[in-house]
Amino acid sequence: MTESGLDAVGSILNLTLGLLTLYLVRKNQSVRWNEKIAGLAFAWMFIGKSIVNMSTYLIDSNSSGDIDFENVVATSTVQFLQGMVMYSDEIFTTTIFILCLFYPIPLLRTERQIKIGLTLVFSFLIYRAIVFTAFGPNILFIPGAIYFLPGLVWGANYMRFRQLEVTQNIQDAKHIADVSLICLILLMGGIWLYWPGMLFQANYFYTIDIWGGALSSDIYDYSWQAFYAASVGLGICILFMEIYCATKRRSSPIGIVFLSYFIIGFAGYFILSKTATTGSSFDQLQVTWDMFTFSVHYDIMRPVIAMFILLNYGLVKAENPSDFRIAKTGTIVLVVVSTSVLLELVQYVMPFSEIISAAILGIIIAVGVGWEEKVFNNLITEFRPLNDILDEVHFATPEVQLDESFSKKFNLTFLTYIGISLLLAFVIGVTDGLVGG
Amino acid sequence: MVWWVVDLTEEQTYLSFMTQDSESKKALSLMVSCMVLAVMYHAFIFWNVKADEVMARNEEPVWDVMFELSNQSATDSRLIQDGSTEQFVFQMDEESSSNRMVGYLNILLEYQETSGNFNDPCDVVSAEIKHSEIMADWNNQSNVLSGTSDDCSAINLYLQIYPDFDGATKNQPGSTSDEVMAKWESSEYGIGEYLLSVELNTQEFASTIPTQGDDDEEITITWSFVMFSPSVVESGSS
Fold first, then answer.
1. Which ipTM value was assigned to this complex?
2. Residue partners of B123: CB distance under 8 A and separation at least 6
3. CB-CB contact of B227 with B139 (8 Å)
């Protein structure tokens, strides 16, 4: 399976999870208001990523070789799809902003703050769409901004609650730190795989070029990388904190997941740093490594992490047997699809017969039947409400009565945005908006 | 005081909770310092230390594609009757190409006048490479797919199989070595059954003296394939 195949699978998976999450969040009456907003944000994150993945897959299918926007090789269809990638990726940016403002700790704590906050976030979404349509990849787009606010908020949450756990011996404070850290892994895990590249001045980090050509200016690429660098800085700070906590015998499973990203990143340095001197070109081994780490994070780990947060921390609660079955089906689909994609990737490196890979998948599923139910039951029921922990540290989530039509308005905003995206991408396609800068 | 500040001061704010005591302030300061230091370090490296390489990131590397050449030949001789056409066949399969690419094909057709009669003229031989399903550059202008000889001189035929291949080192741009190599690693070219059609028409010496004319001739065909294995090295940037 190539990266393009991974995109197609990722698209179907994300769409399924997005729709399931929307359904479960809508039916869920017992979660707190901020958790409801977070649940909706996760659902739209899945749907937005589904459109991105499908557009990327179609770009690969509609083009032979590299796409060259500068030299007018990109067809109108490819430009339309590239526009959709860009606009839909903004759904991810927006949902990440919303998540960090409401989950696990609500920064916005009154109805008025929520209204103003959401208006600003959606205005930023519209602003970036307009800038992209008018100027293409331009510094006014504030590239990489997605990492700044969430990095600060979740980073601060993590540091504060880890500190509360260690210095004031509040055991459960680590759960808030864990949720914040896992949200950071979801957002920045891919960047943390590149951390040694930044520190040791490797080309594979410093020549990162989101647009893969001269279409974006130096300052645009710099802006992206600067926010990546801030994320690496945050990662190093968390690394210190995790090591400190480990010395106090307070390591956490999420901390170990975080450390594994850093260790994989370190190993990757020795493979990826052998880059050609003139650019960020990768050889076959490097491409394979990047596919198994970077792409796997974005296409497989992100939905897995998001689903873990949704189920483990009770953002979606299966309140009756039929909802329980739906939630369980979603999880099983996620696990089976992710496993089969990983098997396909292994097959890409070590070609073996498809019959063998199907047999391995069959064995995994057969062995997993029953086991997966136990894990799922633990996942969906055994958690302590985060608000109880916030209450314990005297920072309880305030009572806010969300408008009854809040979910409808929220969903409608994103649906409208997708409609506008299609229109804007069509304009880009017919006007050759991405060609020649 | 503006209204949103009023809102935030109604109860404990996020910021006040995050900076409640000196320990939490230290933790936050450490985090912000790490982020700021990383951004400053990156800016220094990006704009100073690696400025040249960073500015050259959009330049596409240029690669020298070199070819290790080898030959694969086969000879076939047949006696062809006057006025008849014979098909010479050569089968090239992936095993016989031994993972090398097939570059081009030269066919050498040789014959002599063997009647032994004094002044007997050479026979007329025509040869043609039959267009087949084989993947090759059939429309290449350098191709010589047919030829005729009536003076016992050899006929040389040529078929370009792998497009653009001439054995000389190529200078090609490409973002990766794999991308450049991909153009030269298609093992599908040249695989299949080659057909060479050869027609013989004998000629006799125009004489009033009765002579013994010949009615056949031995034709020798040499199939000569030039095979190659490509390799690339980066030679600069465009």
1. 0.87
2. B82, B111, B113, B150, B200, B201, B202, B203, B214, B217
3. no
Q: CB–CB of A226 and B35 under 8 A?
A: no
Highest mean pLDDT among A37-46, A349-358, B119-128: A37-46
Å from A302 to nearest chain B CA? 23
8 Å CB contact of A116 and B4: yes
**Average confidence (pLDDT) over A153-176:** 91
Strand B85-92 relative to strand B192-201: parallel, antiparallel, unpaired?
antiparallel
Name the residue in chain B with its Cα closest to that of A285. B178
What is the per-residue DSSP string for B199-226? EEE------SS------EEEEEEEEEEE
**Confidence bin at A242 (pLDDT 50/70/90):** very high
Q: Which residue from A112, A229, A395 is facing B38, i.e. has the nearest CB?
A: A229
Work out the mean pLDDT of chain A and round it to a whole number.
84
pLDDT at A317 over 80: no
Helices (H), A200-274: 203-206, 218-247, 253-272
Nearest of A214, A329, A298, A434 to residue B238 by alpha carbon: A214
Residues A111 and A60: beta-carbon distance below 8 Å = no
Query: What does the pLDDT read at residue A419?
Result: 94
Q: What is the pTM of this model?
A: 0.74
pLDDT at position A93 is: 93
Residue A122: Cβ-neighbour burial (10 angstroms; 0-12, 13-18, 19+): middle
Percent of chain B scoring above 70 in pLDDT: 88
Nearest to B180 by CA among B230, B113, B117, B125: B230
Out of B4, B35, B57, name the one closest to residue A279 (CB).
B57
